[in-house]
Amino acid sequence: MTSINLVEKALLVSIQDDVTDTEIMELQDTLSNRIARNDVRGVILDISALEIVDTFVGRVIAQLAGISRLLAAETYVVGMRPTVAVTLVELGMYLPEIRTALSLTHALSQLRRE
Amino acid sequence: MTSINLVEKALLVSIQDDVTDTEIMELQDTLSNRIARNDVRGVILDISALEIVDTFVGRVIAQLAGISRLLAAETYVVGMRPTVAVTLVELGMYLPEIRTALSLTHALSQLRRE
């Protein structure tokens, strides 16, 4: 199950590889409302659970990152596996709007600096 | 009615949801002329009056932000509702060229820092 937790004022969203359409719509709602309501420093999308990725999941990542950026939250994607990066680029999804960090620790320390 | 006001040397443009084609062309003219003429620090597009958004309004935001950016004015979009962010991204409008701020206060303090 995809989950949202608060870690050091950052919303940590963990995306699982069995994420469904319904779950994503709920996630978009929850995420956008919490960003608008809370005083959150940023959003971290953890995709370390994803072993493979397709255009559907790629679009999910792009959309969630896009929403939080539009709502003025710093957004990082962490835990991207090498194969996932290769596949995304091969699919033509360069995701220019997202910032990546190697790990959750890196993302948190970058958010702390801002 | 869509209006333009000067707040701390920033042009504050409030976009209403009944904005028309004619109004937008006037707005583009007024905005570009005032940026070119005045010593303005930046432009703030306030879209808090927008409860829903479509591709037309999305393009209006992108165009106004694009014009002021091309004329070297820092541009912020403020007051975006969660549902508006979700819709824009679902419509594929990631608006990569715009900077958003949660509120007018945030946008003004960011403009002061520059």
Automatic annotation (TrEMBL), chains A, B:
One family name in Pfam for this protein: STAS
Protein name: STAS domain-containing protein
PANTHER family with a match to the protein in the record: RSBT ANTAGONIST PROTEIN RSBS, RSBT ANTAGONIST PROTEIN RSBS-RELATED
STAS domain boundaries: 1-111
Coiled coil: none
Domain of life, source organism: Bacteria
Family matches, as InterPro entries: Bact_StressResp_Reg, STAS_dom, STAS_dom_sf
Gene3D superfamilies for this protein: STAS domain
